[in-house]
Amino acid sequence: MSQWNQVQQLEIKFLEQVDQFYDDNFPMEIRHLLAQWIENQDWEAASNNETMATILLQNLLIQLDEHLGRVSKEKNLLLIHNLKRIRKVLQGKFHGNPMHVAVVISNCLREERRILAAANMPVQGPLEKSLQSSSVSERQRNVEHKVAAIKNSVQMTEQDTKYLEDLQDEFDYRYKTIQTMDQSDKNSVIMNQEVLTLQEMLNSLDFKRKEALSKMTQIVNETDLLMNSMLIEELQDWKRRQQIACIGGPLHNGLDQLQNCFTLLAESLFQLRRQLEKLEEQSTKMTYEGDPIPMQRTHLLERVTFLIYNLFKNSFVVERQPCMPTHPQRPLVLKTLIQFTVRLRLLIKLPELNYQVKVKASIDKNASTLSNRRFVLCGTNVKAMSIEESSNGSLSVEFRHLVSLGCHMVTEELHSITFETQICLYGLTIDLETSSLPVVMISNVSQLPNAWASIIWYNVSTNDSQNLVFFNNPPSATLSQLLEVMSWHSNRRHSINTC
Asked: Which residues cross the membrane (predicted)?
């Protein structure tokens, strides 16, 4: 069975990882259409031999032309269009640098082998065991259940708010009717009965207002507890799994589930905020002594707004850590003057935010307090997040052409890439900032082994994702941790040699 056929039979969590490293440099359509031919070529050797790389690139284009000829007979217009576009892109991008296409394809095949090995690798080390706790999946199910319950409760208070509005309209109509009655009618039995009815309605209105505010308070309390315990803890666990995956550990997943929870909570909180605004409108039209709305609404609105701010601040994450396309197995090690990619994601997916959130990338934002070595980013460092940017429909942005500039690199010195943006939504302005895991800058590939050792040391030893002074007083890594990391890399080499 070909390697590509094996890949296609993987579970969805592994297929998502495969999807991440296929882009315009080497489209997945080509990998699929020419699977067997691609696997039969020695791309790794060609990546160091320009003549061989030139021949392979020419043969790749010939293979595409032959496939295009077969497809043309079938009159598949969409496929014909896509293949022509891909051929034009490949020829234009790699014509002057054929060795680069060999590097890209070689890396993709290598990553496929690594993922296949990971899919068949049993959980055994202490680090992996800590990430595979059954309590984690149980907590995730509890989070999803509680988020759904909160969403349902907000729908119920929506009905309560509408009922209050109808009740108040009826009260207002009856009250105005009494005001228009003749003076003689106001002393009648009918008038007295109408006044009693109005008093009962007012009592009911007061009770319903208090009940609605009580339910909203309960929702806010439950949301606060959920966010500051289970949901944030779940997010921190995902970040730790990402750390371990960066140094060769098991592939991480679960971000789609987190996005669903963050988005539902955000929708619920915004809906609750609108309900509180409606209550204020109702109180402005009609208030009375002991009216609970003026006494409780302001405090509740402040709490809801604070929860929205907190939810957004935690929702801005680095989905894919900085990595040079030429060294996909060595993320977080960046060489000056070489492009690297990084992907950001907002876990609150609202249509109103599509193309409205611009993200700015910078490096060593606080370098003056950490080091005398300062780096800058070149390339397009401001981009808008969009749903169309990702294959899974998330609200994300990928920086693909960032380059770092600097000098005097030290492989035991950590740097941070920071991302900033501002959310303007429904009258709220929220400033967001997140950072990549610490990166090591190098100026020569000879520094790569030491830099990679620093990355492993850091991510094995600490859960802190922003300890840039880690190497001022680094802790010792345990033997079991080092042996486990070595086993991951041994499995990688094994998969490359045998597949």
From this structure: none
Task: Report the alpha-carbon distance of residue 427 to residue 370 in Å, rounded.
Answer: 37
430 - beta bridge partners?
Answer: 423
pTM: 0.73
Q: Are 142 and 259 in contact (CB under 8 A)?
A: no
How far is 278 from 294, CA to CA, in rounded Å?
A: 12
Lowest-pLDDT range of 112-116, 352-356, 434-438? 112-116
Strands 358-363 and 333-335: unpaired
Tell whether the model's pLDDT for residue 412 goes beyond 50. Answer: yes
Mean pLDDT for the stretch of residues 251-278: 91
- Element housing 478 (H / E): none
Residue 498 has pLDDT above 70, yes or no: no
Task: Look at residue 319 and give its three-state secondary structure.
Answer: strand
- Rounded CA-CA distance 274/308 in Å is 13
Residue 494's pLDDT is what? 40
Q: What SS3 state is found at 86?
A: helix
User: In which band, very low, low, confident or very high, does the pLDDT at 369 lie, cut at 50, 70 and 90?
Assistant: very low
pLDDT at 496: 34
Q: Which whole-number Å values give the CA distances from 72 to 29, 68, 79, 241, 413, in the listed order?
A: 16, 6, 9, 46, 56
Distance CA 364, CA 219 (A): 41
Map residue 277 onto helix, strand or coil: helix
| Cβ atoms of 481 and 126 closer than 8 Å | yes
Question: Does residue 369 or residue 189 have the better pLDDT?
Answer: 189
Express the helix, strand and coil content of the chain in percent, nearest 5 each: 65, 15, 25
Closest CA to 109 of 9, 10, 21, 8: 21
Residues 6+ apart with CB under 8 A from 91: 61
CA distance 58 to 60: 5
Is residue 60 classed exposed, middle or buried when 0-12, 13-18 and 19+ CB atoms within 10 A define those classes? Answer: buried
The Cα 437–Cα 435 span in angstroms is 7
The C-alpha atoms of residue 163 and residue 204 are separated, in whole angstroms, by 11
DSSP-assigned letters across all residues of 48-103:
T-HHHHHHHHHHHHHHHHHHHHHHHHHT-HHHHHHHHHHHHHHHHHHTT-HHHHHH
Lookup result for tokens 């801005």 = 316
Closest CA to 295 of 277, 282, 280: 280
Banded model confidence at residue 410, pLDDT cuts 50, 70, 90: low
